[in-house]
Amino acid sequence: MAGGGPLGAIYEIGALSALAESIVGLDLNRLDMYVGVSAGAILSAALANGITPREMSRSFIESTPDNAPDEPALDPFDPATLMRPALAEYGAALAKLPPLLARAAWHLVRPAPRGGRGLLRALEHLAPAVPTGLFSNDALRDSLERTFGQAGRSDDFRRLATRLVVVATDLDSGQSVEFGTLGHDSVPISLAATASAALPGMFPPVEIGGRHYVDGALKRTLHASVALKAGARLVLCVNPLVPYDDRAAPPDALPRQRLADGGLSAVIQQTVRAVISSRMQIGMRQYADEYPHADVLLFEPDHADAELFFSNIFSYANRAWLCEHAYQKMREQLWRRRHELSPVLARHGMHLDIAALRDNGRSLVPSARRVTRSAWLPFGDIAERLDHTLEDLGRYVDQARRTGPAGSRARRKASA
């Protein structure tokens, strides 16, 4: 599971909920291994601790957990808590300021070797006074520690019933570190996940064992190779961040928006997403070459999904709708890809629940539901059956063309 901040977490919760109910034989809380990066690290740790995607939705999206009497409680979590100023960082920066100002003033009044004053050099001496992060990640760490510390769960990698790997980046070496593996499994899961989600500039680096760690996505997006190297034969990859492409939008979509009109934030978002997507595509091709006997399935949003790209996650109503949107879009994607996915899943003892995918009444956050099956199958069951039949017919025609008359006669004889 890749990262993507609060927006990525919301998308992944919706997508996971759809995957959980649509694939028969798949239990997302009993996988052989979990690999998480950034926001994906937090959700992977939750899955490994037995927390279902629907429970995550109630806590993180609806902020109204509804646990059964025998289930550990989940703390309601508001993404706005991630926007608390990093006061400790600001204080540490201010404490450094007096001696740095004195040094900068000295270089300002001191003539530079080639004449003039050393203004640029003076300003360089003030750099250590800039905080390493704008917002505090203490609330996230505390919330994860409470959640994983409850009865029936564990904040210790070594006590989980399954393998969990949380990837972060060592700031001073630039290398990825796989917490949960031998030699890195004594770190609390909550601390490792907080480090993996420490986006540089937004959150301060997290100190673990005298080293500082930041977002695990700096080196790779998914780190699926961790599972493949461990011998996984089926890897499900969920990536919430893709670049927006207005050219792929249908004619009746929302009015096209120019990203340049969205200011610096939109430009940076698109740039980061494009880099992540390009890097991930390269990685997926490498997986196919290096692990030919493994099946790697990638699930991600539609590149033309403007509603996902331009969403405001700090509005509760919008957050709830966005999770429902991701849930419905993943159901739609599974339906569209059913002929591609079915043989792959069958190799691993699973299959798509076609009845569930065709159930127009299913919802994750009922109060927020706006996108329904009718949005992509506008004439209900009749269109659904016709769509299914035409796709099957097209596949049979293509197969007949490839195998020729002999193959067609053989199939007719077998059918008879």
Name a few traits of the molecule.
two-stranded antiparallel ribbon; 416 residues; alpha/beta; 9 strands; 46% helix; five-stranded mixed beta sheet
What is the count of β-strands?
A: 9
> If you compute it from the alpha carbons, what radius of gyration comes out, rounded to the nearest whole angstrom?
25 Å
Secondary structure tally, helices: 14
* Strand content bin: 5-15%
Distance between the termini: 47 Å
Most strands sheet: 5 strands, mixed
Give the overall shape. globular
The average pLDDT is 83
Helix percentage range: 40-55%
* Poorly predicted regions: 370-381, 406-416
Order of helices and strands: HEEHHHHHEEHEEHEHEHHHEHH
Structural class: alpha/beta
Textual characterization of the structure:
The chain is an alpha/beta fold and 416 residues long. It is built from 14 helices and nine strands. The protein has helices at residues 5-22, 39-48, 53-61, 87-109, 119-124, 138-148, 189-196, 225-229, 263-290, 306-309, 316-336, 338-346, 354-357, 380-415, and strands at residues 23-24, 33-37, 163-170, 176-179, 206-208, 211-214, 234-238, 295-299, 351-352. The strands form three sheets. Strands 2, 3, 4, 5 and 6 form a five-stranded mixed β-sheet that branches. A two-stranded antiparallel ribbon has the order 1-9. A two-stranded parallel ribbon has the order 7-8. It is globular, with a radius of gyration of 25 Å. The model is unreliable at 370-381 and 406-416 (pLDDT under 50).
